Amino acid sequence: MKIVVCIKQVPSTNKVQLHPETNTIIRDGRKSVTNPFDTYAIEEAIRIKEKTGGKTIAISMGIPETEKLLKDAMGRGIDQAILLSDKAFAGSDTLATSYTLSLGIRELMPVDLILCGKMAVDGDTAQIGPELAEQLGIPHVTDVIEILEMKQSYLICKREIDNGYQLLKVKLPALLTVLKDINMPRMPSIEGVLQSETIEVIRKDARDLEAKTSKLGLSGSPTQVVKTFVPERDSKAIEISGNIEEKAAKVKNIIGEVLGNGRSQD
What InterPro entries does the annotation carry (predicted)? Predict the structure, then answer.
């Protein structure tokens, strides 16, 4: 069984810098970590391989420094890593990103299963998984909390929904996005880290992928960020004194002001 895991580098701090012209995140490899949700996808891929055999491959689209995160994935037990890196990919929205990832994965076909984290914590769109599945023309299931059965031609999984859980039988190949409750990620072992240093991360650019430039980066991104800003937080505490009737009247006045009434209430 061949399992592909999509991982992404995200800022390791909440203090995110944005490009003044494109309003996209400025990514600094020295201050990045593996997207937390993706670590659960990595762990699940390794667990499936340990049960059924096969090969696990991590793939990422990012800056050259993303290689260290792919090395970390191999230190945890992933067999191979591929980095899609090119200046032409810069500024990609979810559609352009899923297109680029699909090209990288097509070169690995046939693939039995693709695993993604639920979403990236720097964007919170949760769109890459479903869009990637559509690019590849395979079924997908989101918010998977457990894989109950894995066979050569299908799997049965449990997904979280608003009012409970749903059991689904899915034909392979397929793509799943996983939640944090699916497992507990292992840490890289000393042996794994040493071994990962001997394995080369395969790099591919737009030319290697034979990508259509019109579908890459900003030019291939129909979603454009118009404006970004940090919300201003203005909070204060008001002490209310008096008897019950006086306190109630003061609270009523405050609520009226907040709702834009503007008139004092007696």
Answer: ETF_a/b_N, ETF_b, ETF_beta_N, Rossmann-like_a/b/a_fold
